Every structure is written in structure tokens, then in C-alpha cells.
Amino acid sequence: MPSSTSSSEPRPIPGGRWGATCLGALALAAGATYALERQTRAHGQRPSVVDDPVAWAVVRRTADDDPRVVAFVGASRTALGYSAGAFAAAAPGLRGVQLGIDGASPFGVLADLAADDRFRGLAVVDLLEWEVGVADTFNDARLYVERGHALWRAPGAVANRYLAGWAQSELAVLAITGHRILTSWLGQARWPAPAWVVADRARSSRADYQLAEPAALARKRDNRLATIPAVPLTPEAWLAILDRDVEPLVRAIRAHGGDVVVIHMPISGRLREIFDDRYPRARYWDAFAARSAAHVLHFRDLPAMAGLTCPDEMHLDQRDQAAYTLALIDALRARHLLPAP
After folding, report:
1. What integer pLDDT is reported at residue 178 of this predicted model?
2. DSSP state of 121
3. Biggest alpha carbon distance in the chain?
4. Which whole-number Å values give the CA distances from 97 to 87, 111, 187, 305, in the listed order?
5. Which residues contact 150 (CB under 8 A, 6 or more apart)?
6. Ramachandran class of 136: left when φ > 0, alpha when ψ lies in -120 to 50, beta otherwise
7. What pTM did the predictor assign?
8. How confident is the model over 64-109, as pLDDT tens digits?
9. Cα distances (Å, whole numbers) of residue 16 to 10, 22, 29, 152
């Protein structure tokens, strides 16, 4: 006699129209997603793709073996300054590649391009004076660079990133955590304010500073100003670090057919005043420009760029991205670094 506790007894599968049940469940899920999406967009939220080392690595690999590539290297200033749409329209024969990494100095990515003899494009490097001589400037992009070299070992991660990126680029609701949505629906919290920075699958970012709270911008500004060294490196020490760490990278990239532009992007307000005081341009930036093998640009020398204002003193608003990008293209063409239109 079979034991009453045996789990080996076959269990009958309930009858019914399982196809109709599945279709009904899918219809309910689609309806709920649609309702959530409408409500999310009604509150001003925009779709945004999460950036990570895999997303960076996929874009990085497209920069090889193509002399038409213009690689934008830097941190959040680069990400929020470069307009992929404006670049594609003004330079249709070239390929803009966004390699900026939020919170990272440009040196680690520049070193990766220098070590890769397949890179034969133009690297446009965003640099601020205070980034020279900071500890770990070559290591803060390490996770991204390492993933770029080992991308072929993780096909599952690439597929997952592709599918997730596609969904995130289409659905604004995915820019908000489920917990925040639930607490808002239950009336326990306000509906989340829309993020003022969003990104797409090509790692192009846009910042709508009209959505930012003035108090939040003021806190970011004050925290940033507090990090500027009160006693910066002497001009001699600053230039010596660039000679030692950056110039060999520039020469390596030029040796395998590429080139390098170093640009000082726009800054505004109190931040610009402090930089003018602590890093006098003639003794720092201009001295670097006079001795570097790279092509060195300063936003103040480019009329179309000099008038741009950063709402948080450091990053450009999305309404100025096209103007910045077009001014940069014109400056590069004037120096014969890009072909004429």
C-alpha cells in the first residue's frame, strides 16, 4: 500500500483552458504596466538607461580599427556636454563614441587607448586642472577598462545588458524603484520627482536643470568647491606630472595613427573664479598648451563656447549640448583635425 506521505504519487494536472489563462495574465500585466507608465510620464519622468562597465565596454569596442572615430574621454562633463545628434548631423562621415565615465578622471581611458594600436581615431579629452596629481587617477576607470578587454568572456552579461537597456530606454517607470512606486501608491510618500539627468543606450546623457531643485544644486556646488585644493600644486609640479603621465600616452596614440585633443570645457560662477585664482591660466593651462604634443583648447578661446553657462557651475544643460558640440567641431575643423563638411 502506498504511503500517505509519499511524494512519488502522480498528481493529476487540473483541466481547463491554460492558454486563455496565460493570455489573460499577460493582458493584466500589460495593462498594469501601461497604467504605471502613463502615470510615471505624467509626473515628468523620462526613460533612462543605467550605465555600467558592460555598457561602456560595448561602446568602447566600437572605437577600434576605424580612423573615422572621435572618442570623447572624460567624466560627467563630457557625458553632459557632447550631443550625439548634433555630432551626427554636423559630421555625418565620422563616428562619435561616448567614453566618458561619471566620477572618473580621463587618464585611465586615455591609457587604454594609448595601449591599443587598433585605435586610430581622435581622442577628445576633457581635463580640469584639479584632476592632475590626484591619487588613483589611472585606477578609477579600471573596472570599465578591464571589462572592455574581457567582454568576449561574458556573452550572457552582454545579452542581459542589451535587453535591459532596450527596456530602460522605452519605459520611464523603470527609472523608479518598485518600493518608491508602491509607497507613492499607498499614499505613504510623494510621487518621486523626475530625475534631471537621463541617458540612452549609446551612453549619451542629457541634463534638464529646470527639473533640479535649487537647494540640491547649491549643496552640490558647495561640496564641489570644498574639494578644490586650497594650496594647489605649483605650476612646475603640475606640469611635471603631465609630462610624466600624459605626454607618453599622447605620443603613443599618435604613433599608431591616432591623435589627441585636450579641452578645458566651460565652467561658470564661483567655480570659475576659484580656478582663475588658484590656477592662473598663463602659468598652468597655457604653459601646458605650449609644451604638449596634444592639441590643447580652452573654452574661453572659442567664442561660440565661451558664452555657455553651466547651471551648476560645472555641467552644461541639455539645451546647450548642441551649441557646445558644434563649437567643438568647428574648432577641430579649423585646426584640420576633422575633415571639412
Report:
1. 59
2. S
3. 97
4. 10, 16, 43, 21
5. none
6. left
7. 0.85
8. 989 999 999 999 999 999 999 999 999 999 999 999 999 899 999 9
9. 19, 11, 21, 46
